[in-house]
Amino acid sequence: MLDAAMTELxxxxxxxxxxxxxxxxxxxxxxxxxxxDLARAEVRGLAxxxxxxxxxGFTHTTALTLEGAAAAxxxxxxxxxAASPREDLLLANPxxxxxxxxxDEATDLGLYDPDLEVMDIEQKAEWARAAETAARAVDPRxxxxxxxxxxxxxxxxxxxxxxxxxxxxxxxxxxxxxxIVLEDNGEMQPGGRAVQVNRWRDLPTPSTLGxxxxxxxxxxxxxxxxxxxxxPVIWHPDAGFALLLYVTTALNGDALSRKQSWLANRDxxxxxxxxxxxxxxxxxxxxPASAPxxxxxxxxxxxxxxxxxxxxxxLLDLASGMRLGATSTGHSTRGGYETLPGIGPSNLxxxxxxxxxxxxxxxxxxxxxxxxxTGWWIGMNASSSQFSSAAAGMWIENxxxxxxxxxxxxxxxxxxxxxxxxxxxxxxxxxxxVRTPSFRVREMAIAGE
Length: 449
Hints:
10 helices, alpha+beta
């Protein structure tokens, strides 16, 4: 099929690539110990990009036959005739690929868990059921479950192009979580925990995950605002990820090359304090967004975006790299065969430090320990360095958490926030594709009562 698509592209005088994907998914939800939702699906599709006379045509199909693949390539070529011309169309160079023999390139990274294929649904449902039970056992006031869930996706991906590239890998992703509600005297407080991993053995025990969800609801119950002002802020790992996503939005090669990023014309390479090192590492066996090659077939590489506070890297695909006079950094992304490639990070993280959360709180006379952000994505824009979000957490006095906080807003310029990082924790774990340990910012604006 892939060869048929390439043959048709060449016959139409075009270059291009074909991306084929198979996805098998399972989604189940538990409430009160019973399965309330169960969905299994299998999707197979092919996407073709045709590049002709500096114009791009794109189409996708689920007709995975020789005829269907050829028809998709012919349609993409025809669509390119109506597209606007551009000067940044490139294909991955097979000569620079670390492998292209059609074997599973993710084997050495351990990205696929074959045990998931033979495990029955009840075993997976029991994991979610046990997490719900553990969460509700924390406190008798927890009488309602929003959901306890388990999801998995088993996928295979191929990419070929008219230059001779042929690459393939398979991968598993799974995860789940539990959300509960504590109710007392008409007041409600949600609590929840969720994780995403590559293999079944990497999942936390359901009792641990459920207990943490229940404890979070108990700890946060009765939260109220604090007086507005500027205070030290300690970021919990469940909140710190948002700042990293703001950074990568500004380091997106498309925004940089079009001068739409606030970092595009920055005079100084300093973005944070000496304690801030941000890495993106797609070639890890222990993180959920790993892959041997990106959405265009370019090798992925582990990279440093910010090194001891200094800007060192960017997120580039082939087109943005050309516009910036550079090469791709392997950051082309595909959400699926249905969409064109974009640009984004993989396993993005703040390098851990050596302090415990308790040590980060030590010496804080009054400050906020942020556990949860709400609406943080609304202002995320490559052209603005401003960060703002509703927040909840714990109030710190004399180095100790004292009471829950809710209905406050934290805000600041991203470079000022990162520049004021004066402590980084050692409590790092891969529970999602974008993670930080706890870290402390010397001072931030907090709007409360």
